[in-house]
Design a protein that fits this description.
With 215 residues, this protein is mainly alpha-helical. It has 5 helices and no strands.
Amino acid sequence: MKDLLELIQKQDLRIILLLGIIFSSIYMIKKGISALIAKEIEELKAELEKQKLQIEHFHQVSQPTYQKLFEKKINIYQELIKISHKYTIKRKESYNSSPLEDVSDISYQNIQFYFDEIKEIEKTIEGNQLYITIKLLEVYEKLIIKIDEFNSDLNELSLYLYHSNMNDIEYNTHEEKEKEKIYAKIYNETKLEFKEFNKILNNDILKIKKKINLD
């Protein structure tokens, strides 16, 4: 009986020691995991802080750059509006009429105003496409492509006149008459694109005004 009790006591002691080892191991494991998690959290915090500094640096660099681009954009659009306004006034003053697109009987001089305006628009936009909206640039390119298609007609006329035996009066009269026909044809083929160009231009100006709160 005594031996049995001693055996049970030894077994209980072993169990207690075993449980102690188990709980100790669990504690160490938890402690190790906690340390690992804490390390990962610290590394994550450091990475987030690094990204925050990078974003702040990018913002500091990009803000002045954006401001310069926006100012350039405003200047380009101001120039385009000035061109449009200038030729609208010219047409009204010269003929005491509505803008070109509303005139049913197009005169040669009015068509000249039309082409002079397009030339100034082309001079303003070329090299500054970066500052123009995609929609405005698309309709502008369609307009210029259509006009360029008629260059061969003008070149043929110049070549014909160069080899003709006309005197100066006949030469000038014929040149003006034939150019008027070609210009009228170009105008009729491109007036829709020109009207759309001005429509988008005015919409772009309105968006710029809203952006800088000039209402």
